[in-house]
Specification:
The protein is an alpha+beta fold and about 190 residues long. It has helices at about 25-35, 40-50, 50-60, 80-95, 175-185; strands at about 65-70, 105-115, 125-130, 145-150, 155-160.
């Protein structure tokens, strides 16, 4: 007879995992997910003493739960969607009226690197029967390093960083952003 741990799933003498597709183990996985849906599959597997494949099968086939990555999105309203359509129509009309328009078009973007230790959320997984709606709060004005670059059909300008005279990172404000745009405008004569 096997000796099981407090969760009822691990052989206490050998440490090996036992068959996980029992009603007892399915209930243990259901309870575990109910108490902590954000626990990683690796950690849940170690806590319950279930093999990776058995845990995956219990979650998917028995409990009908799937791992969802939490995605950070901005809310898009009906008015925003109408503005997008208007912009697309303007863009198409402008290209039709001026075929060289794309030759003079620049795209720019900036990337923020937070110095507070905040990490990318792409590895943040949630187990459930539907995708979660999660709000993550963090400081809106934490110190960060920002890099800006512009690209066109013919050239790349940048990157420019937002730093003070001692090369310490600065957050972006109107004055600093105008300064970068001024540098960009000056660089256009070299392209």
């Amino acid at each position: 007879m096997q000796n099981l741990d407090a969760k009822g799933l691990r052989d206490s003498y050998s440490g090996r995992t036992v068959s996980a597709r029992t009603q007892r183990s399915i209930d243990a996985v259901r309870d575990s997910v109910g108490l902590s849906p954000k626990t990683s599959l690796r950690r849940r597997r170690r806590l319950l003493g279930i093999s990776r494949e058995s845990l995956r099968r219990v979650l998917k086939e028995d409990l009908h739960l799937y791992p969802y990555q939490i995605q950070i999105k901005q809310k898009v309203t009906k008015g925003d969607m109408e503005k997008r359509v208007t912009m697309c129509e303007w863009f198409c009309d402008t290209i039709e009226a001026n075929p060289d328009f794309l030759d003079h078009l620049w795209f720019s973007d900036e990337a923020h690197f937070l110095l507070s230790g905040h990490v990318n959320s792409k590895y943040n997984v949630y187990c459930g029967s539907s995708a979660p709606v999660v709000v993550i709060q963090r400081s809106m004005h934490s110190t960060k390093c920002t890099a800006w670059v512009a690209i066109s059909k013919n050239s790349i300008i940048g990157p420019y960083s937002f730093q003070d005279e001692n090369e310490r990172p600065q957050t972006v404000n109107t004055e600093r952003y105008v300064d970068v745009l001024t540098k960009f405008w000056a660089s256009l004569g070299q392209c």
